[in-house]
Amino acid sequence: MLKTDAIRWPAPAKLNLFLYINGQREDGYHELQTLFQFIDLCDYLTMTANTSGEIVISPDIEGLPMQDNLIFKAATMLKQYGDVNLGVNIHLEKNLPMGGGLGGGSSDAATTLLALNYHWDLNLTRTQLAQIGLSLGADLPIFIAGKASIAEGVGEQLTSVSPLENHYLVATPDCHISTPAVFQNTDLIRNTPKRSLAHLMHQDWLNNCEPVVKNSYPKVAKVIDWLVEYAPTRLTGTGACVFSTFPTAQEAQVVLDKSPSWLTAFSCKGLNTSPVNALLSTLE
Predict the structure, then answer these.
(1) What is the spatial distance between Cα 113 and Cα 125, in angstroms, rounded to a whole number?
(2) Residue 127: in which H helix or E strand, if any?
(3) Which residues are within 8 A (CB) of 238 and not within 5 positions of it... i.e. 6 or more apart?
(4) Which of 246, 244, 188 is nearest to 214 (CA)?
(5) Strands 149-152 and 30-50, how do they pair?
(6) What residues have CB less than 8 Å from 152, skipping those under 6 apart?
(7) In this structure, what CATH number is given to the domain that contains residue 153?
(8) 3-class secondary-structure state, position 186
């Protein structure tokens, strides 16, 4: 039965706590091992389902045509998959930086699939939703699953884990990094041996993309070089965002208060369970 109540759905950001590239397949995709953890900074999508058959998203995002919006794509794909002619009005509160490696677009799309599965009463499994959304982004399944996980293969093989829910200072350099350009760079480390999950969870963590990004983007290098003086600091995903790890919110805030005027940053907390899961549990 169509659920028409307006509900405000969170779409959390993620960090890649480590990222290792194990090799390149014949089809061009890269085999990897990476650890995803959510943070408590979210976009929010307020959804009101209806019978119009139309997908309406507000406000417009400057420079992003509606047809290219991952929220619109996800809703359209779900309509086709579920063979329904229902509609929805979606209001987006955009808090996550675009193109920073925090997964904002994929998270918005995943929340759209989870939310409309509820509003349109489709009763699809998370596995089905992940399959629908995989073409929209390799990290979309982690947002559907909603649990901190190690991802392997090209990112589709997920194993839930429980890393420490640390506090982070996340810096957002003023540059946009092309993920394809990073993976095509001949200097990229792409031969890191695969490790067991136990080994991965009990070692110092690295991001194989970081050296290439630092060499190509001086603004990222500048941020990392400043923050690493205070705490362990790494690139997340293919960037451009950088995160530093702290045991407490107070320690993260001390460094944030010291940050120079050219550094744009925020503090947040790691979450091993997505807030979307928490919301769904109250609705079921």
Answers:
(1) 11
(2) helix 126-133
(3) 101, 177, 179, 182, 183, 209, 213
(4) 188
(5) antiparallel
(6) 31, 32, 33, 159, 194
(7) 3.30.230.10
(8) coil
Tens digit of each residue's pLDDT, the chain (284 residues): 899 999 999 999 999 999 999 998 888 788 999 999 999 999 999 999 999 999 999 998 777 788 889 999 999 999 999 999 999 999 999 999 877 889 989 999 999 999 999 999 999 999 999 999 888 888 899 999 999 999 998 777 899 999 999 999 999 998 888 888 998 999 999 999 999 999 999 888 999 999 999 999 999 999 999 999 999 999 999 879 999 999 999 999 999 999 999 999 999 999 999 999 999 999 97
130 backbone φψ class: left, alpha, beta (φ>0; ψ -120 to 50): alpha
Backbone angle region of 23, left / alpha / beta, with phi > 0 → left and psi within -120 to 50 → alpha: left
Q: Annotated catalytic residue: which of 43, 79, 108, 139?
A: 139
Is 194 marked active-site? no
- Report residue 218 CA to chain centroid gap: 24
Whole-angstrom distance, CA of residue 221 vs CA of residue 227: 10
Contacts of 250 (CB under 8 A, 6+ apart): none
Assess whether 199 and 248 both reside in one domain.
yes
What are the tens digits of pLDDT across the range 51-60? 999 999 999 8
Residues 105 and 130 in one domain: yes
Instruction: Judge whether 139 counts as a catalytic residue.
Output: yes
Residues 144 and 228 in one domain: no
Query: Percentages helix, strand, coil for the chain, rounded to the nearest 5?
Result: 35, 30, 40
Contact 7, 47 (CB under 8 A): yes
Range of the domain at 135: 7-162+278-283
Give CA–CA dist 236/99, Å, rounded. Answer: 12
Considering 14, 73, 147, 214, which one is annotated as catalytic?
14
